[in-house]
Amino acid sequence: MSDAEPLSDLEVREQSLAGVRDALAALQQVPAAGLDAEKHETLREMTEDASALERALSNEADQLRDCDSQ
Description:
The chain is an all-alpha fold.
């Protein structure tokens, strides 16, 4: 068992956001031109979902920062 302090809500959001940004960057590197239509659509949907998740986590982190600064 670790003696490390548990992460704050903001730290958890920031770590999640970093992971989502890494995943989004990886999705954007997939050479979609070589995919058939179905796989291209799947990749597009995954990229859109990851972008939406990035925005949501970013907004949550910003709100938590605002609460911490007050």
